[in-house]
Design goal:
Blueprint (H helix, E strand, L loop, with lengths): L9 H23 L6 H10 L10 H8 L1
Length: about 70
C-alpha cells in the first residue's frame, strides 16, 4: 500500500481503516446470508454421508499434499 519511505499521516490511516470497516461489513453480510443449496449439492452431501470415515483424507494428509 505504502512504500517503505513514504510518510503516512493519521488521516490516511483513518481513511484506510474506514475502507477496511466497510469491506468487512460487506463480507459479513455475504457470509451471514442464507443461500439455499442446489439440488445437486444436497444430493452430493447425502451421498457423502454414506462413505465410511476411513475413506476420508485427514487434515495432516491434506497439509502434506498442499502445504
Amino acid at each position: 500500500m505504502y512504500s517503505k519511505m513514504a510518510t503516512v499521516t493519521l488521516e490516511q490511516i483513518h481513511n484506510d481503516l474506514i475502507e477496511i470497516k466497510e469491506e468487512m461489513f460487506h463480507l459479513r453480510a455475504i457470509v451471514e446470508e442464507d443461500f439455499p443449496l442446489s439440488a445437486e449439492t444436497d444430493l452430493e452431501i447425502e451421498k457423502s454421508r454414506h462413505n465410511p470415515r476411513s475413506s476420508f483424507v485427514s487434515h495432516e494428509e491434506m497439509r502434506k499434499e498442499f502445504g
